[in-house]
Write a structure and sequence with these properties.
The longest helix has 9 residues. The protein has one helix and seven strands; from the N terminus they run H-E-E-E-E-E-E-E. Strands 1, 2, 3, 4, 5, 6 and 7 form a seven-stranded antiparallel β-sheet that branches. The protein is mainly beta. It starts with a helix and ends with a strand.
Length: 97
């Protein structure tokens, strides 16, 4: 499901993926992005968070910087990079009850 999304991430020339893991419904992507980049987020069925290691990002018009953790909701579809940034995308498939 989210494998195609991460293939798209590798095609974005302004991104550098340091490390990624797709394992047992969990996702970890260590990302470096240039200012002005737009990064897609995982599938809406994934509970997703973003931890900013350095630089600045924007989600739905709100800016986040170094050491911020943002829990995304299902309507968040992209991360806008305000300044050269390194951040980690963490995700897990939501449980169906």
């Amino acid at each position: 499901m989210c494998l195609s999304l991460y293939r798209k991430l590798f095609e974005i020339k302004s991104l550098k993926i340091h490390h990624y893991v797709l394992l047992n419904r969990r996702v970890y992507v260590d990302t470096v992005a240039k200012a002005g980049s737009q990064v897609p987020v995982p599938h809406p069925q994934m509970e997703t968070g973003v931890y900013v290691i350095g630089g600045g990002i924007e989600i739905k018009g709100k800016a986040f910087g170094q050491r911020d953790f943002v829990l995304l909701d299902s309507s968040d579809d992209s991360i806008n990079v305000l300044s050269n940034a390194r951040f980690v995308i963490l995700g897990i498939l939501r449980a169906a009850f």
